[in-house]
User: Fold these one by one.
Assistant:
Number 1:
Amino acid sequence: MEAKYIITEFNNKKTGFLLEDGKLVRACLLTNESLVGNIYTAKVINIVPSINAAFLDAGTGDTLYYSLSDNEGKHIFLKHGNSEKVCIGDELLVQVSMDPIKTKKGAVTSIIELKGRYSILKRNNTVGFSKKFVDEDRKNVLRERVKNVIESEMGSFSKIGALIRTAANDVSDEAILSEVREMAIKLNSILNTAQYSVAKNRMFSAPLDYIEDLLDIIAKNKYDDFKIITDLESEYDLMFGIIDSGYLELYNDEMISLSKVFNLEDKLKKGFNRTIHLKSGGSIIVEPTEALTVIDVNTGKAIKGKDVQKTFLKINIEAAKEISRIIRLRNISGIIIIDFISMKDTEDIRELIGYLKSFLSFDEKRVTYVDMTPLGLVELTRVKGERPLTLADFN
């Protein structure tokens, strides 16, 4: 698969567009307004026993949700009274795990992690590996070496582990250990400095999201051919020192804009339509609600031929591919219900679900296929993080 990541000014906003085989699958404003990944010293300002949660002030402009049950036994107290429980007035070290979405508050966790290209340092006291990291002998040796590096750099702070990512498959153990050591030193510094910091102080800023995404794409060797193209010289200069120049291209044709070359405006508008028309003649209708997103697949004018059931399967497979793209483009998260065209043959249903899972596997975020209900509704969940996008965000 060929992919291009376009960075340009779109309606006076720096925007990134990811195209896979010419189709727009992601669009994001590159303002880095997201707080996800930032680490703060925060003050507990309220406890709500009915939901077993606390609300914290980290100085971000709004209170943040903190689950007491999810973080039980893992709190990082900076200032604490005599009680064994989290109390109003306590100060904690936390990391933002979710941005505010509509009426829902942002969320924080004490399960702090730092992400690298080949590994993730986290508070779980184990060294795990990506499912695609399959060399068992190498894993056994590397597990012990990673543990030793963490223990030597973290000092008195225990229960720190790591997850070795898929991208580590293609680099040396020394490169992985070097990154783990660098992150352990950084985490140790954050934990030590936080002990003497005042409340509502940002201790760590997550790297620019899109730079991290680009590095991740390259490290995972996700595409057969991948290029990053920008007409912003300052952006090119920024990336030149971080990303291998072989992936970079500076566009400087003054006769036609980069946006026009790739027809980005038209692609964006079509991607955010309520109704998405399929080449087969069928269509998809996307209906976001407060609790979930409902996606309906319709036959439209596509019923042709004698074998209607095979036509339904063909439309459903095309719809599944388009739905996986729309979910990524709009950053739809939480519960997703898909009403595919009803099919009678269980083998056809099994084939459709196989295709759907395959298409969803390209998503940058974790998408879980839950089940197909007795009514034939497919249930998915997609990890929440940044809020969903609408066309208005790009205007």
Number 2:
Amino acid sequence: MTQGIIGRKLGMTQICREDGKAEAVTAIEAGPCIVIQVKTAAKEGYNAVQLGFGQAKRLNSPQQGHLKGLGQFKYLREFRTDDVDNIKLGDKVDVSLFKAGDLVDITGVSKGKGFAGVVKRHHFAGGPKTHGQSDRHRAPGSIGATTSPGRVLKGRPMAGHMGNSRVTARHLEVFEADPTRNLLVVKGAVPGATNGLLLIRKSGRRK
């Protein structure tokens, strides 16, 4: 079966363990998803499963043809898998894929922060606050050498667009998986804002 599912971030809260310790957790609406397409190594060059999630208001003609009457889905996402022999079009994938204690990797789009300087974006310390330095408190400082190499190297941390990028939080512990409510509760924070789309995969690490 597929190793992942599509979900939507509901928000954060806290729960208490049996020993009384409070843990910050994230609640996720995970699935149900429907198998839209099965890709095989013989035809597409790799094995994968495409899942549909969420209700779309309208679909154009190519989208309707691709979905083949399986539903009107807003989001289509693909998950690699090793075995596709037992997966069929129209199969339902829900949160019963996981159980308490499992480790998962969750991918989302981080919150956009707009244009940010190097102190906020890359945690620079800034320039000296004394000795006549009146305007260098949040400046980046030198960004390259003079003669050699005589240019600014690629990847130099500088001011720019912060956030709004694909981020994966790895090895998060599953606290609860409730198929009746399509609810997945994981330890810690996950990328993105409330109602953001999430891709939840089984982690390769064992607890």
